[in-house]
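Quick one - first record:
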Amino acid sequence: MPEALQLYRQGVEAGEHALGKEAFEEDVGHFWGILETRPYMRARAGLAECLWTSGKHDEAIQHYKDMLRLNPNDNQGIRDLLMPRLIETGRDEEAEALFMEYQDDGMAFWACARALLDFRKMGDAEISRKSLKAAVKKNGHIPAYLLGRKKMPQSLPEYYSPGAETEAMFYVKENLQAWKTTSGALEWLLDQTK
């Protein structure tokens, strides 16, 4: 991992140099729309992931946040990586703000984030149960994978479809730890999905 981290850092630095300072001032907000920025954004996503895996959580979160500042349309799905990282590190207010920023996201990832955030805030309450019900309606496969009723595959498929088992696999890969670090969340999920 240290070698990968070093290579990603070099890639990000090379991208910053190649794009120039002006791009980071003038192109904020539509970064991904400029083809020349995409290798940089991919390298930065890789760097953030390596940092997270290496235990450098604050630095990883800063990269994710800055990528969303550069490209709020979030063509890379960075918000789906940032949300569980914020929850795992107990940054609920930041997670809540991120949720509000993308509240129109209709995917299961976001519906599950709402349910988990509500549980963290209120425990087993009517609002959190309602949020969980909405999340399960988006993808009914997610609870079985979160609870270990279904085993995760050795490697993830190349893509997923909304509402499908493949989406559940992708969700659980990134979000299981957020559920585990939320005291009582998996027990609550089990109780609500019997």
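second record:
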Amino acid sequence: MEHLLPEERQTYLRRFWESLMPGGILIITETPNRVWPIEGHTTGGTWWIPWMRPQTVFTRMRNVEKYRAYSDVDFYRCGIIGSSYREILDCLGRPDDCVELSIQVRRYFKTLYARAVKKSPARGLAVNLLGLSEPLLCSLLRRPPSAYMPFLNHLVFQKQ
């Protein structure tokens, strides 16, 4: 997702959704998470970029020698700007026949991030704490905790 242009994201996601049969599942995985303050996917750890508008990011990054000659398309293709949770829903067109499984499946969060727990004690602590509070967070935020994690934005939708 993060390597597609915004209009391509919308086109592809809608086509994928339309091609699903009832009961079909669409899994969307995207690395740079717009909610997390550090962009570690492309730049190696530049702060605040995920919270900026794309044109602001592109202008800022062109001040860095490595990115000076990059076009806007080059920036999108390298994956520097990911989608937000809301943008993904908007790209899907917020269909009435859409059920978000990542909100409804119990222990989804801990299952999804089991590998991250093994890689880092800090991630393990975060995953375990958020895993315990997952039902409450889903109710309050009306989105899965995975929509906020820095190392993977992973969403699962089922067509009714």
